Amino acid sequence: MDLAVHQRKLLGLIRDTYQVHPDDDAYIHGVAHSKDLKEARRNVFMWRIFVLERTAPLTFTYLKRRHLLEAALSTFIQQENISPFRETQAPAFLEAMGHHTDRLVASVAQFELALMKVKQGAPETHVVTWDIEPHALLKSLVTDLPLEGVPREGNYQIIVSRDVPSHFQIVSIETADENRNTYRGD
Amino acid sequence: MATLSTSCVDKGPRRSVAIGATYEGRDPYLLERMLPFVDYLEVTLETIAEVQGDTIALSDEIMSELKNVGDAAQIIVHGVGLSIGSHEGMSPTYFRLLDDFLEQIDVAWHSEHLGYTKVDGEHLGIMLAMPKTHESLDLVCRRVDEIQQRYGLPFLLENIVHVVPDFPGHYTDAAFLNALVERTGCGLILDVYNLECDAHNQGFDIPVFLNELKTEYVREMHVACGVEHNGFLLDVHSQLARNSTVQLAQQVIGKSPGSVRVVVYEFMPEAIPGLGHDAIAEQLGRLRTTFRN
Predict the structure, then answer these.
(1) SS3 content of chain B, % helix, strand, coil (to 5)
(2) Which residues on neighbouring strands pair with residue B11, listed in sequence order?
(3) pTM of the prediction?
(4) Which one of A179, A185, B65, B134 is least enclosed by Cβ atoms within 10 Å?
(5) Spatial CB neighbours of B258, under 8 Å, sequence gap ≥ 6
(6) Burial of B12 (0-12, 13-18, 19+ CB in 10 A)
(7) Of A3, A51, A77, which has the smallest distance from its Cβ to B131's Cβ?
(8) Alpha carbon distance B147, A19 (integer Å)
(9) Which of residues 109-128 of A touch B (CB under 8 A)?
(10) Domain extents in chain A
(11) Which residues contact residue A141 at a Cβ distance below 8 angstroms, ignoring those fewer than 6 apart?
(12) Which of A20, A77, A6 shows the shortest CA–CA distance to A45?
């Protein structure tokens, strides 16, 4: 087996995207059925956990709290081309989670990614929509404390921009009186 | 371009082996705690790089920190993303970052891992060991020659953990490393914790390996410790080094006195809060006591 074929098959086995064929050699069959392979996949998972817990803390904590972390991260690992550069992993993860089918997960991830970009100097203004009043949830994620009570349902937006003091502002879009229903981040 | 520096930093009486530690920046208190005990700081480009617009670049903040280290310690660059063993080629991004780093900071030497992290541009999310075949050896030797010509600096390659069963190639692990250093003149990093992982996980025979390895080419040693999971010892660098790991490093140094220049304690930045600055400093102090004699 030449090096290219060897490496492509191992990539597929690590990502769980390669099905072993009867005519594959004994080594590939051996790897495919080894405990080592399962543990190698787990190893990839744990490395992502270590990095994302630090670099995408809001979304990581929310997924964990909702017991969605393992599934979300497994899908991310299988589908995304994860760079070894640590600082690229959080943006890629948050981009993927921004499309999560759970709307609140998507909102948290979109907000965290927007805030990250703005803090790094991006000039664009980002608008993230929410189905709940987000302040209480975000506060509980930042402090890693339980959410106090049930968040009020409604239509909210967070404006994320370097032109906003502390970079973000929560706005209720159900009332014209924004002054009474806004919260600026700190 | 950086100049080759081979002098040891003067930190008291001359010792046989210097001490080094991982430093990934943005933690000045940790740096302050470590510097009294270390002669070398190991910097990983992938960890000090950041996203700047649409590109990856070295963090200006961390580069300033490293420049300010001055004579307190020498810098050594230890990469993880070069992917020297990928069939399709090495990472151009890694070279761009290394070029940029070496333009700004003098290093004692630079190093990478004997393995690959990507295939056809797809990242594995982990590092895999090379199959020990003639084809692999030829490929790695060509690339080591290219790297040494490009930078004119000592270049070292490190043995990595085997996370999947080893391919039955043409060489043993030690014979592959021996052939590599004899053909290219590069040096070796021997990560003794990786050897312990392989012994624990794969039944790797460390004494047989060390007996065959030309340890006179080992310039740097790594000590670290991870956690056990499902019966596997993981190479995650989240713990203080065990006594067995330190003793194994001593054994290798004893086999070829004068060859090993530095023992580096490696820990990942994510582990620092759990380990604590004081424990890291104490670990380095113990290593210093152990290896200076």
Answers:
(1) 40, 20, 35
(2) none
(3) 0.87
(4) A179
(5) B16
(6) exposed
(7) A3
(8) 37
(9) 120
(10) 53-184
(11) A57, A58, A61, A62, A108
(12) A77
